Amino acid sequence: MDKTAALDAFSALSQPTRLDVFRLLVKAGDKGMLAGNISDALEVRQNTMSANLSILNQSGLIRNERQGRSIRYFADMEGMSGLLAFLMEDCCGGRPELCQPVIDEIACAC
């Protein structure tokens, strides 16, 4: 991930509803969630949610899949991994043991 893509991702996450959406989709895992269910869960109007989902999708943090007349959204784990890798790219000045606690904390124990 380059600096521009990282800034796009941070910009997308800098709004409270979009951050809530991203965290909700991370929690949903491989099942993802339908757009209407995301709106209902976060109590956000569907047209407002649609705009927020579009921004997150463009940032590479979520992806979608059409299912008939509905759209299911998923956290894009590659996008999230890319952002985390960008943040830790120059970590610890050549002493990887200093980064290990952070890596252990963010590692999924799924």
Give an account of the 3D structure.
With 110 residues, this protein is an alpha+beta fold. It has a single domain (3-106), classed as Winged helix-like DNA-binding domain superfamily/Winged helix DNA-binding domain (Arc Repressor Mutant, subunit A, Orthogonal Bundle), CATH 1.10.10. It has helices at residues 3-13, 16-28, 35-42, 46-59, 77-88, 100-106, and strands spanning 33-34, 62-67, 70-75. The model has no long low-confidence stretch (mean pLDDT 91).
CATH superfamily: Winged helix-like DNA-binding domain superfamily/Winged helix DNA-binding domain
Provide the helix percentage: 55-70%
N-to-C CA distance: 25 Å
Main beta sheet: strand number and arrangement? 3 strands, antiparallel
**Would you tell me which CATH topology applies?**
Arc Repressor Mutant, subunit A
CATH top level label:
Mainly Alpha
Total count of strands: 3
Q: Averaging pLDDT over every residue, what do you get?
A: 91
Q: What is the oligomer described by this structure? A: single chain
Radius of gyration: 15 Å
Distinct helical segment count: 6
Order of helices and strands: HHEHHEEHH
List unreliable stretches of 5+ residues. none
Tally of individual domains: 1
Which CATH architecture? Orthogonal Bundle
Q: Structural class from helices and strands?
A: alpha+beta
Strand content: 5-15%
User: Can you list the strand order of the major beta sheet?
Assistant: 1-3-2
Shape type: elongated
